[in-house]
Amino acid sequence: METALMVLAVMVITGLVFGIVLAYANKKFAVEVNPLIHLVEDVLPKGQCGACGFAGCMAYAEAVVLDANVAPNLCVPGKGPVAEAVGKLTGKSAPAIEPRIAHIRCAGSVENAKAKYQYVGVQDCAAANLLQGGQKSCQYGCLGFGTCVNNCPFGALTMQPNGLPYVDPEKCTGCGKCETVCPKNVIKMLPIDAKVSVNCNSKDRGAVAKKNCSAACLGCGLCKKNCSHDAIIIENGLAVVDYKICIAECDNPTCFAKCPTKAIEAVVKDRYPMGSAANVAGNVAM
């Protein structure tokens, strides 16, 4: 009994000593946090998407406050309103980032794209891609298991019954998280003012592309020939749009008119409303 009491007493005394030492060390070596860091973090979207190049909103807040070389406009989801707020808090100025939106460069739905086998593994695109590049005959197409959906910090992506993800323009902030996790590089960021979009990612040529997917770009060049501003090139069998030229010079796009597979199409203007950034940035008026 006495032994047990002695052991208990030693443990209590040891705990108290360590507690006192830790409390002293915490007070002695405490590093004061600049209160401005928390003010900056408060105006950030809290998506932790990493689009700014830092490991989360707190890391960016610290960097933009403490490092004179870190610009206040690196928060892609927050766009202009957040850039302006961060600039006011830090005394820095920088142009707002051009608004952008995620675009699915694939129309290879379950109806359009052929499968080379039936996949029954883990329902994740990265996992499926490890098995012969996925179940689709087109090695460049969306695998349809929703890895992008699961990784979107703002809930802007949902899977459709046709096996392709849908981007909600009201929720998409253009952070690029979905772009980085797609193993097929199917998702790319488009300028918010884009007039046309290429809905294909295939590098296969003509007959091979068409055999794998009825909606594939054939690399035929008809879109290039029908572009009156030389804003389209054919690269690796795929139409590529120069959006700087297209947005600046084209008021009435005709490039998609003769596309045999409708792989290139016009973007409906109200599909990407400019006000979507406000849904994420919130009230950042200072």
How would you characterize this protein structure?
With 286 residues, the chain is of the alpha+beta class. It folds into two domains: 35-90, 3-methyladenine DNA Glycosylase II, Chain A, domain 3 (Orthogonal Bundle); 100-273, 2-Layer Sandwich (Alpha-Beta Plaits). 34% of the residues lie in helices and 10% in strands. The protein has eleven helices and eight strands. The chain has helices at 2-28, 35-43, 57-66, 79-90, 125-129, 147-151, 177-181, 206-212, 222-225, 243-249, 276-281; strands spanning 100-104, 157-159, 165-167, 187-191, 196-198, 232-235, 238-241, 264-266. The protein has a two-stranded antiparallel sheet. The radius of gyration is 26 Å and the shape is flat. 38% of the residues are buried. Residues 271-286 have low confidence and may be disordered.
User: Rg to the nearest angstrom?
Assistant: 26 Å
> What name is given to the CATH topology of the largest domain?
Alpha-Beta Plaits
Helical run tally? 11
Number of strands: 8
Distance between the termini: 67 Å
Mean pLDDT: 87
- Any idea how many domains? 2
Q: In CATH, what is the class of the largest domain?
A: Alpha Beta
Question: Helix and strand layout, with pairings?
Answer:
Blueprint: H1 2-28, H2 35-43, H3 57-66, H4 79-90, E1 100-104, H5 125-129, H6 147-151, E2 157-159, E3 165-167, H7 177-181, E4 187-191, E5 196-198, H8 206-212, H9 222-225, E6 232-235, E7 238-241, H10 243-249, E8 264-266, H11 276-281
Antiparallel strand pairs: 1-4, 2-3, 5-8, 6-7
